[in-house]
């Protein structure tokens, strides 16, 4: 394929990182639908529920293990790099930098040495500059490391700059910058997904006003495929959707969920000492703070973006935010229903087991031929686990490279 020509999937595999995550699993499905032979880089022990139904070869590896990346990319025609450590609160910044920056560089170099024909690197709008007046920013707005609020934004900026430097040395990479993806299969969930879920449940009594760009995760995935097929080497493409003030997003969520939106708007200054205390408690307990100073720094800026370049050059066509939020809520409801069903099955099975046990020990109660009900032992532990937990998760890899919605700073009620 040429620099802007459409790719044609062949027998040589396409390596996709982050496929078990939110954005990565959507990208995997889009690429599979286009006929790509998928090779998916996964960590040992990672939660692989999002890979269900995919016809793909799995290779184990880690962004912090360069040798595993060399093995994974060998013989591949294309590379789509989506994996990243996506957290706003990070007690150990070095681990995030090792995965998001050093890991990206190691993967890109391995791909270059392997002769990969074309690469899509998933960056984030977090790595881009913002306008002074809050109007939608595009790919031309200057950005600097000093302007990055928080370690996640800094890590994505540094990774993007490293990829661009490698492009100047001949790496055939295109960069995409997703905004705030929402939708199905947000199993962790992401900070944006958790905010939508909590708002729909009425667990956000107050908020800090800001602005963000909401996009359906399936549109982001389509944008990755379009960038692989049509993107110009060395160019960046914002993959956004609809710009919304946070209060408008909460109003939309409330309408779809049949609830009242949070009414209490808090000033950032009032929350600064709260964030300091929350971070101290989080460090002492190993928990995630409900609000951090990075949250508040991000909230000072409206994260509004324009996808005009991707629309014009790639044919990118995102759907309205309402559809993205509705699909996210439907998925969260389905997961809650599955968990509830598992709990009921477990409870019924336990009662049946106890009843059968009692009957087998009663006179004439079945004796050697009695068979206790074991339904309570057969329920799927995956569906009975609360949404947001991940089996065997080690922070650092196999997370999608979505944007942190720098500015979503809801104040959560106590759990």
Description:
The structure is a single chain. It is built from 11 helices and 12 strands. The chain has 415 residues and is an alpha/beta fold. The strands form 3 sheets. A 7-stranded parallel sheet has the order 3-2-1-4-5-6-10, sandwiched between helices. It has a 3-stranded mixed sheet with strand order 7-9-11. The protein starts with 13 loop residues before the first strand and ends in a 54-residue tail after the last helix. The relative contact order is 0.17. Mean pLDDT is 83; it is low at 1-5 and 356-415.
Task: Write a compact overview of the structure shown.
With 415 residues, the chain is α/β, with parallel strands linked by helices. The protein is built from eleven helices and twelve strands. Strands 3-2-1-4-5-6-10 form a seven-stranded parallel beta sheet, sandwiched between helices. Strands 7-9-11 form a three-stranded mixed beta sheet. It has a two-stranded parallel ribbon with strand order 8-12.
């Amino acid at each position: 394929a040429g620099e802007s020509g459409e790719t044609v999937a062949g027998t040589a595999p396409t390596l996709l990182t982050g496929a078990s995550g939110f954005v990565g699993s959507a990208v995997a499905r889009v690429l599979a639908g286009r006929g790509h032979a998928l090779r998916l880089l996964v960590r040992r022990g990672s939660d692989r529920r999002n890979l269900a139904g995919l016809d793909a070869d799995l290779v184990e590896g880690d962004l912090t293990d360069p040798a595993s990346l060399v093995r994974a990319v060998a013989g591949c025609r294309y590379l789509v790099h989506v994996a990243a450590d996506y957290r706003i609160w990070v007690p150990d910044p070095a681990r995030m930098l090792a995965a998001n920056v050093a890991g990206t560089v190691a993967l890109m170099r391995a791909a270059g040495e392997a002769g990969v024909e074309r690469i899509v690197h998933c960056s984030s709008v977090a790595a881009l500059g913002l306008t002074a007046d809050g109007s939608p920013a595009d790919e031309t707005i200057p950005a600097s490391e000093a302007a990055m609020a928080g370690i996640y934004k800094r890590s994505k900026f540094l990774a993007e700059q490293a990829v661009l430097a490698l492009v100047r040395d001949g790496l055939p990479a295109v960069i995409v910058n997703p905004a705030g993806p929402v939708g199905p299969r947000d199993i962790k969930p992401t900070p944006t997904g958790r905010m939508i879920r909590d708002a729909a449940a009425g667990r956000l009594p107050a908020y800090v006003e800001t602005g963000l760009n909401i996009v359906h995760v399936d549109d982001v995935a389509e944008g990755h495929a379009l960038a692989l097929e049509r993107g110009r080497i060395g160019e960046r493409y914002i993959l956004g959707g609809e710009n919304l003030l946070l209060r408008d997003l909460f109003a939309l969520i409330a309408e779809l969920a049949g609830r009242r939106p949070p009414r209490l708007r808090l000033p950032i200054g009032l929350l600064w000492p709260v964030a300091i205390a929350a971070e101290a408690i989080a460090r002492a307990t190993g928990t995630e703070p409900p609000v951090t100073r990075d949250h508040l720094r991000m909230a000072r800026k409206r994260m509004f973006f324009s996808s005009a370049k991707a629309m014009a050059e790639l044919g990118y066509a995102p759907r309205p935010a309402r559809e993205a939020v509705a699909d996210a809520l439907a998925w969260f409801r389905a997961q809650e229903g599955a968990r509830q069903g598992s709990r009921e099955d477990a409870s019924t099975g336990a009662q049946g087991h106890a009843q059968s046990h009692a009957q087998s020990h009663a006179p004439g109660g079945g004796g050697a031929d009695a068979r206790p009900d074991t339904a309570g032992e057969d329920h799927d532990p995956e569906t009975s686990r609360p949404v947001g937990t991940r089996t065997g998760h080690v922070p650092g890899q196999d997370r999608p490279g979505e944007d942190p919605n720098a500015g979503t700073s809801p104040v959560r009620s106590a759990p």
